[in-house]
Amino acid sequence: YQVSEGLQLEFKKRYQFSVIGHYVGSTYAINDVQNVAPVVKPYWTADTKLSYEGSFFKAFFGVNNLFNERYYTYVSKSSSSLTRDFFPAPERNFVAGMSVSF
C-alpha cells in the first residue's frame, strides 16, 4: 500500500517550492507467495524542490529523501528457504537541472 501527498507553493510569480511525502506500508517480500517470512517494515520519505522560471530558462534544485530514511525498495525471498535479499534505496540525494527555451 502506498500513499503520496504534496504541497506546492508559488511566490513572486517566478518561484515554486514543493514538498511531497510518500508512505509505503508493510509488505511481504517478492516471491513470498505464502507470506511465511517476516513482513518488510513500512517507511515514509519526503522530497522537496525549489524552482525558478525566468524569461528564457527554468532551473531547479531538489532534495530527495530529505530525512535520510533507510529503507528497502525491493526485497526478495528464496523459493526454498526463508532467506531474504534486501536492496536498499538511495539515501538523501540532491538533484539540480536547468532548461533553456529559445
Order of helices and strands: EEEEEEE
**C-alpha Rg (nearest Å):** 19 Å
Report strand order across the widest sheet: 1-2-3-4-7
Structural class: mainly beta
Shape: elongated
Mean pLDDT: 93
Report the span from N to C terminus.
Answer: 43 Å
What does this protein structure show overall?
With 102 residues, the protein is mostly beta strands. The chain has no helices and seven strands. The chain has a five-stranded antiparallel beta sheet, with no helix packed on it. Strands 5-6 form a two-stranded antiparallel sheet. Strand 5 and strand 6 (84-88) form a beta hairpin.
Task: Write a compact overview of the structure shown.
The protein has strands at 2-11, 15-24, 43-53, 57-64, 72-77, 84-88, 93-100. It is an all-beta fold and 102 residues long.
Topology of this structure?
Layout (H helix, E strand, L loop, with lengths): L1 E10 L3 E10 L18 E11 L3 E8 L7 E6 L6 E5 L4 E8 L2
Antiparallel strand pairs: 1-2, 2-3, 3-4, 4-7, 5-6
What are the key terms here?
mainly beta; 5-stranded antiparallel β-sheet; two-stranded antiparallel sheet
